[in-house]
Amino acid sequence: MHHKSLGLLPRVIIAIIAGTAAGFLAPEIVVKIFATINGIFSNFLSFCIPLVIMGLTISGIADLGTGAGKLLLVTAGLAYISTVFSGFLTYFSSGIVFPHIISAADKAVASVDDPSKALIGPIFTVGMPPVFDVTTALILAFILGIGISSIGGTTLKNGVEEFKKITEKIIENALIPFLPLYVFGIFINMSFTGEAFQVISVFGKVIVFILALSVVLLLIQFIAAGVTAKADPLKMLLTMLPAYFTALGTSSSAATIPVTLEQTKKMGVAEDIADFCVPLCATIHMAGSTMKITGMALAILALQGQVPSFSVIAGFICMLGITMVAAPAVPGGAVMAALGVLKSALGFTPENLALMIAVYVAIDSFGTACNVTGDGAISVMVNRIAGNKLTPVSENSGE
């Protein structure tokens, strides 16, 4: 999809820099105008989240109903376990690392009890209450998705497919294009009130930590695959690197499928298994994105001096694993799908959600890269469970 000349990431980075700079120069009325635009967009976003969850999840679950029964369950199960494992790995690692990288001074600046109090408020707001809340949307999506697949219905399924296309259009044409302006509005406000630099410096450290942790996650995934298939994990991981770097460029699991598929077959996964697993995992295996979202969410809470209990986080991660199945193939889709759970499970305010989007988009492509590379590891395991041995494609190059 090359419908935009400048990718989302460069536009978000420009918005962060421009917003931070403008905050020094702009009079308060300008900041107020942007706060008003952001307030309206934020309400629109809240209105859309339940609809987006339904549009994407119902279709995803209904599609899972058809296909290769047992292998489908195995693949979905492995993808979910991997995604949830990634969330818990992030939670426990953050517990060890964050106290060292998020200092008391960071917290003091960030937690003016509630960041929205320190920020300039809008001139007026336009209320847009969602049709129903996120939990209702998820439960309804499950009931309808499982129902459609079990009765083999076509009428409702066609309707759901069209609804999915509408929600994808909303994400691509309304939510994503507006994000840089939204991020600009947040940073001009934080810069005006003196919060931006603290946030940027803290998140710089958090991002480095999460990127390092994603390497650990990939090693664990490929060691598990190596043990299952009795193969060399590092060699397999190196084979998957072209998919990793392609995803860094595209920020989309779906756009990277051709490369992921090719490299998975090079590892020796049977062709029919690869053809089945890779596109499915591109939709349902979100370990990298889950790591980024969990890490960022914990950092935002830590900055505000909140430490959620294990049970709250466990519930959040398990729900996130399910919601991420809905993350569409558009860049930034994962964080859009996660907003509802962040709000319902962790009590995120609109400001927190806005900050989450800004920081997540900045490293979105790393999450995607981690997802698609892990898809290779899952394909290897499914291949073994299906009773196939790895038959690597012999390569003439000495590499």
Give an account of the 3D structure.
The protein is mainly α. The chain has a single domain, classed as Proton glutamate symport protein, CATH 1.10.3860. It is 79% helix and 0% strand. It has 16 helices and no strands. Mean pLDDT is 82; it is low at 111-117 and 395-399.
Key descriptive features of the protein:
globular; 16 helices; mainly alpha; Proton glutamate symport protein; 399 residues
Provide a concise account of the structure shown.
The protein has 399 residues and is an all-alpha fold. It is built from 16 helices and no strands.
How are the SSEs ordered, and which strands pair?
Layout: H1 8-25, H2 28-65, H3 69-101, H4 104-110, H5 115-118, H6 134-151, H7 155-192, H8 196-229, H9 233-250, H10 253-266, H11 271-284, H12 287-303, H13 310-323, H14 333-346, H15 350-362, H16 364-385
Share in helix: over 70%
The profile of the biggest β sheet is:
none
Q: Would you give the CATH topology?
A: Proton glutamate symport protein
- End-to-end Cα distance, whole Å, is 32 Å
The number of distinct structural domains comes to 1
Count of discrete alpha- or pi-helical segments spanning 4 or more residues: 16
Order of helices and strands: HHHHHHHHHHHHHHHH
What general outline do the C-alpha atoms trace? globular
Q: Strand-residue fraction?
A: under 5%
CATH class: Mainly Alpha
